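Protein: JmjC domain-containing protein
Species: Alienimonas chondri
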Amino acid sequence: MSAALPDGPLLDLPAEYRTPDAFENGLFTATHRLAETGLFTEENILRMLESHPRELANVSRMGHDPTVLEWSEGLTDGLSPADILAALKKGRLWLNMRKILDHQPEAAAAINKLYDDLEAACPGFTATRRSANVLVSSPGAMVYYHIDVPQNILWHVSGEKRVWAYPKRLADTPRDELEAIIAVKKEEDAGYDPSWDEDAFAVDLKPGEWITWPQNTPHRVENRVGLNISVSTEHYSPRAFKYVRAHRANRMLRDRFGLPLKSTATSGLGYSAKAAAYLAGRAVQEYVTKNRSLYHYPKTFRVDPTAPHATVELNGEPTPEAFRPREASAAAMPVTEPEREMANV
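Structure follows.
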């Protein structure tokens, strides 16, 4: 498929977020025009799966209890793209097509235009180290409460999902846990208490909407209606990248030399000294690289669209109840308008 991008900006950025500080510290929704490109339809998802490296197209499953982490990955060997899509519609699965900017040039052009339009609408803001994943997920699927390291944006294209963001919980996240996540010494999943929903920013995200939040804001997602197709992008502004480097330097210098460093300032002599120490020599680079592969979700099932729950256990046992699809939660309370209001945090 050869797609011509629509004329004009592919996104709307509300006026109150058109400065770097307001945008990077804002938690809000707005609209986009990705659907007009035709690149993220079911038909084109099948085309993308045909050419995408299979090792970069992970299919995962999850339980039903958002307080209990039950996440594993499955095998798709021998399956066609149509088989995978059929399983996604039937089961309780989450397809994550990674490194889209490297392997899908037409989608990459659209995603880079989104960022270029964002930079044009927000003078002074720069999105570096851009990356993108295409997410295709079953009705009722969810992503657990977690903390991402880069700045990120969720661009929703099809279906309906509820997103909770927890800006007030970031300050309460234990320093060691946040630092370990940023230093890639543990997975991004974090402990979750349902009572935190009372203070969350919650929104039912519709096709054509996007949402963003301040860096490291904890969040979680539940699909509400239909097969969901979204694009998840990550980036770093210069400030955000320095913030990550400060955290990683603190962790490395404490682990290796016992220095009790806590400051996450991104300027001044203290930051410059830490950054220089962090970058000095091959040993530091090996420290980061080694820790990037410390964790892997287990592979416990094979995707099979003909199976009752679209999965077959590798150990030969029946599919555990936790991973079986249930009736979609049609009785979920709608999000009230005040929760959908844009908010600065």
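Remarks: The chain has two domains: 15-174+189-237+298-325+335-344, 240-291.
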